[in-house]
Amino acid sequence: MTMEEQLNFLSARAVDLINRDDLKKKLEKAAVEGRGLRIKYGADPSAPDIHLGHVVGLNKLREFQDAGHTVVFIIGDFTGMIGDPSGKSATRPALSREQVAKNAESYKEQVFKILDPEKTEVRFNSEWLGEMKFEDVIRLTAHVTVAQLLARDDFSKRYADNRPISLVEFLYPLVQAYDSVMVKADLELGGTDQLFNLLLGRELQKVMGQEPQCVMTLPLIEGLDGVNKMSKSLNNYVGVNETARDMYGKLMSVPDDLMWKYFEYIAEVPSAKVAEWQADVEEGKVHPREMKDILGKRIVSRFHDEVAAEDASAEFIRVFRNKDLPDEIPEVMVPAEEIGLLNLMVQAGLAASNGEARRLVKQGAVKINDEKVSDERAQIMPEDGMIIRSGKRGFAKIVIG
């Protein structure tokens, strides 16, 4: 690619790029020196399950790798071991060194489904933060003013509302910025919600005598509810380690108007093609369900294979369109004695708690042997082979034992 083509390729689908001229100069300099750029990306070790929301950033990182650059994947083990408020009402619990190590291995196993391990440098920020003395921390804080930190949107709103902001929260953006200094990042990539922290890294590099990194942000992807950012805590996510059938089934529930974003940012279909398909649907030439089938198979093929994708599609049609039972239904052994419906659902793994089970019953999502159960206080006498169904994808077969 020419330099201009590479710039267009690398900046495609980005929301913010600060700035294009600086990135062009970095690319030209790196080409003369026969090296790639160092592209920084930070990961939180407290949540090692990667979902399709994370894939947006990982796709872009892979594009940088394909263009000959190195991804510096930083796992925030030091910050993970002291807990992180992150603007939330409760501080995240601190992790043990063992938990961080376990989560880090899980991270690597998942991200290398997308990233090239040969072009990825995995670093832990405890390498440098764990060696700092208190006087080093004081010197570091001297480079940032309170006014600068209060410019961050969530901080300014909380300050205006007289809601507390801890000093630890003030230190986190600074720590992330210092990571950029230590790995000599040429560019840092993150979601649009990370723009302030990424820009702070640019400023800190400048005052510490380094060439400031470029900053690139990508959009945050809404989850299956079509409203909130994809998140495991909101249960609106699709995990990259899920089975092919679960992954496909979840993708078929994506709201029609959201699937185009999934096509472009997750499945990496060119924008022009996405626009063409969207026009076909809007004009009634193609049914939205057909497009979701294409989306589901594309994404499942990526994380499994084409055979698994076709099988998941066929199974979905057989079970949900034709109202048949799945080929494989998890079995749960219970004694032959009366049990409350909610407790039975929890024991069968169809709900995490009685509260969740109660909500599913109220939503009309629970059936026993294809008969809807609407009484949350119902007492059930289990029978061998009884099928309990919860929602679109939850099935359990009772075995008396």
Summarize this entry quickly.
By secondary structure, the chain is α/β, with parallel strands linked by helices. The protein is 47% helix and 13% strand. The protein is globular, with a radius of gyration of 25 Å.
Task: Describe what this molecule looks like in 3D.
The chain has helices at residues 3-11, 20-33, 52-66, 77-80, 97-111, 126-129, 134-141, 146-150, 153-160, 167-183, 195-207, 244-251, 259-265, 271-282, 288-303, 306-321, 341-347, 354-362, and strands at 16-18, 38-43, 70-75, 120-124, 187-191, 214-218, 331-334, 339-340, 366-368, 371-372, 379-380, 387-390, 394-400. It is of the alpha/beta class and 401 residues long. The chain has three domains: 3-218, HUPs (Rossmann fold); 244-321, no CATH class; 331-400, Structural Genomics Hypothetical 15.5 Kd Protein In mrcA-pckA Intergenic Region, Chain A, CATH 3.10.290. Strands 1-6-5-2-3-4 form a six-stranded mixed beta sheet, with helices on both faces. β9 and β10 (371-372) form a beta hairpin. The termini are far apart. The model has no long low-confidence stretch (mean pLDDT 89).
